[in-house]
Write a structure and sequence with these properties.
By secondary structure, the protein is of the alpha/beta class. Helix content is 46%, strand content 13%. It has two domains: 252 residues, Rossmann fold (3-Layer(aba) Sandwich), CATH 3.40.50.1100; 95 residues, Rossmann fold. It is globular and about 60 Å long. The N terminus is likely disordered. Bound molecules: pyridoxal-5'-phosphate (PLP). The site of pyridoxal-5'-phosphate (PLP) has 22 residues, from helix 6, helix 10 and helix 14.
């Protein structure tokens, strides 16, 4: 039995403190209807716009870590992240009158691209509020995917401020809000990633690592995996400076962070969703936190095995997987999956990533 991670607890006591510290108890079934999410995920409409992405073995990493490491390649989506799944599933589920009035969303960037592509595909008008700190590559992509159907508004420093602005516009213009994470249809759309992993990997599987921002990917993947193969661990991963889910799980209630680190901009969320928190609390086996250096090293690892560059949030799961693997017995030889969730990185970030990855390697020599 591997040691289990818990975040928001000092690393030295993390493993011993599982459950007691975070209250992550599977048997606690109060008001959680697993069949409801299983049904929603199995019937989710995502493949009009999303692809079934590959689950690739990472040979160099597997040899280095002594475990089978698999990468679920959501960086292969047409918008270079999984977010199009939840966005499309939500929009496709709306009544015709709501679609005709138009939709609005707030997003750090990747959900915005998902809404933009979905709006263009469904022929729906969309207003998209993006924080001023969102990488230009994401803002440009929103415009490119949405074309004439999409109006981009830049407002606020963080996702939370962009969200407040979007809520005000939504009331003024009677638009339908498409949440970035806190919605059952969005969660179910993201849950199709978990469905694909289990379809693609029929053999022994020990754990799936999932990056967490607002929590929709973790909630959806956990809902599917725990319903179908409950023995598989589902472990969330956050950055140390943006760990609202870890802190909330430790507190037993949603916690709002005063500030969040922006290096992993895709997961820079001050407060997780109510529904995502509920699901993660029931279903996750734990949440690990990693620092920026570990993220940069994971970006390089992914590059070395795939020749693809992922964004910081896209490497979070692998950084967590590596931390977890380091705590396993040498001969454990586990099968571990990390979701590489996105690849929308500004090119000028590469210098920092390369420098930090180099520093991590030098320190390890
Ligand atoms: C690349 C990437 N990974 C992970 C996440 C986190 O997803 P969630 O908000 O569903 O936790 C996001 C969110 O936008 C993202 O863009």
């Amino acid at each position: 039995m591997p040691q289990s991670p818990v975040s928001a607890v000092p690393a030295t006591t993390r493993h011993a403190a599982l459950g007691a510290a975070c209250g992550l108890v599977h048997a606690d079934a109060d008001a959680f209807d697993a069949d409801d999410y299983l049904r929603r995920i199995l019937t989710a409409r995502v493949y009009d716009v999303a692809r079934e992405t590959p689950l690739d073995l990472a040979p160099a990493l597997s040899a280095r870590l002594g475990h089978q490491v698999w990468l679920k390649r959501e960086d292969h989506q047409p918008v270079f992240s999984f977010k199009v799944r939840g966005a499309y599933n939500k929009m496709a589920s709306l009544p015709a009158e709501a679609l005709a009035r138009g939709v609005i969303t707030a997003s750090a960037g990747n959900h915005a691209q998902g809404v933009a592509l979905s709006a263009a595909r469904l022929g729906v008008r969309a207003v998209i509020v993006v924080p001023q700190t969102a990488p230009q590559v994401k803002v440009d992509a929103v415009r490119a995917h949405g074309g004439e159907m999409v109006e981009v508004v830049q407002a606020g420093e963080s996702y939370s401020e962009a969200y407040d602005h979007a809520m005000a516009l939504q009331r003024e213009q009677a638009l339908t809000f498409i949440p970035a994470f806190d919605d059952p249809e969005v969660i179910a759309g993201q849950g199709t990633v978990g469905m694909e992993i289990l379809r693609q990997h029929r053999g022994a599987l020990d754990a799936v690592f999932v990056p967490i921002g607002g929590g929709s990917l973790a909630a959806g993947v956990a809902a599917y995996v725990k319903a179908v193969r409950p023995e598989v661990q589902v472990i969330g991963v956050q950055t140390e400076d943006s760990c609202a889910m870890a802190r909330s799980l430790a507190a037993g209630e949603r916690v709002t962070l005063d500030s969040v680190g922006l290096f992993s901009d895709g997961t820079a969320v001050k407060r997780v969703g109510e529904e995502t928190f509920r699901l993660c609390r029931h279903l996750l086996d734990g949440v690990l936190t990693v620092d920026t250096d570990a993220l940069c090293a994971a970006i390089k690892d992914i590059f070395q095995d795939t020749r693809s560059l992922v964004e910081p949030a896209g490497a979070l799961a692998l950084a967590g997987l590596k931390q977890y693997a380091a705590g396993l017995p040498q001969d454990a030889r586990q099968a571990l999956v990390a979701i590489t969730s996105g690849a929308n990185m500004n090119f000028d970030r590469l210098r920092i990533v390369a420098e930090r990855a180099e520093a991590v390697e030098a320190a390890a020599r």
